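Homework-ish question, so no full write-ups if that breaks the rules, but can someone show me the predicted structure for this set?
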Amino acid sequence: MTDRKPDVLKSQPPLLYPPYASTRLRAPQQPLIQLPARYSDLTQPVYGHLPLRPSDSDLTRQCPGGEPQGERIIVTGRVVDEDGRPQPNVLIEVWQANAAGRYRHVVDTHPAPIDPYFLGAGRAETDSDGRYRFTTIKPGAYPWRNHPNAWRPAHIHFSIFGRSFQTRLVTQMYFPGDPLQPFDPMLLSLPSDRARERLISKFDLDITQPEWALGYVFDIVLRGDNATPWEERA
Amino acid sequence: MSGQNESPVASGSQTVGPYLHIGLDTEPRHGVMVGPHTAGERMRLRLCVLDGAGQPVPDALVELWQADASGRYVETADHPNPDPGEAFRGWGRRATNRDGWTLFETIRPAPTTSADGRTQASHINVCLFARGMLRHIFTRVYFAGDPMLATDPVLALVPEARRGTLIADRVDDMWTLTIRIQGDGETVFFDL
Ligand SMILES: [Fe+3]
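A: Not a homework solution, just the prediction itself:
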């Protein structure tokens, strides 16, 4: 793949990755046109989201009358840029399957139970140190039809607004020690072990709340928005 | 994990997948970017997304970023009223429907001035996400009949034969553009 800048090639998947079958008709064939930084409107976008409520970051308390089934977890971490600078006031949106591996979505026909007490979507904002925190349940693995006997490893979808158009990121968080990971085309599409490790959260006993919830740490590294323009790179 | 002189590897992109609506298409008001007090010429923008087989893409998400009626990008998040329709933010988001298209209500942005002093014709930045796309891709919407198209510095980077893929047409009372992800008439996509 030669469709990206060298620094980005180390961390980002290609657009065409045939083992993920749906990329075959959804990857541009023409090379992307490099847009010089002076034309790419780098002003910080204003996403205009509605104010956050406490229940937005606690996915176990969004349905009156009960709590979701499954293993209660805390997911927390920091959003930083490539130079390690914390990214405050970043909006993070998450969505995920329930503990049985079923999404609350009309397109999901996996015959696993819907959980009446789990919607599977949340939002949080980073604090001044770039830190965020969600309470949720551990999602289950689920089958998909990409190839025979294909299963997605457990994951939580993350959407992150950085400081600019350039740093917009949608990714997925995985769990340590998941035996499905070596077979997952999504994770394998990343260009290096380091890039894959970046998306696998770490179990952390210090985050774990005794007799309540297991803790996982998932740090997010956004591209620096003051990166050297392409035409000035060596 | 990384050496001392090695900067940390950036988090890699992953597809939004087929269930993107649960997390990202939760607020219909994000498709209505204008409110009663927004300055500028109101317009509706209809974007249709097709895959490499010419089929509509029913599980894509479109985000727009644009300048306001004075050619500026809104810079502060501290609006007194957070309702998207109340104060113009220049940002919109909407998923495609089962026929692969989506509709925004916004204003026509004014031309903008680049860091090098050159003027860019009225345009809207588009960020496209979809199942089957491991990363999002960027494109732009310009407007047919705009005399400034001839001098726009970004269009000048695009081979002439492909420029039309970025130019919306006025159909009835709507600006309309088809985004072809792959194949014949493939839309021009940018790397930022
Ligand atoms: Fe998923």
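Now go work out the reasoning yourself. Hint: Residues 20-24 of chain B form the longest helix (5 residues).
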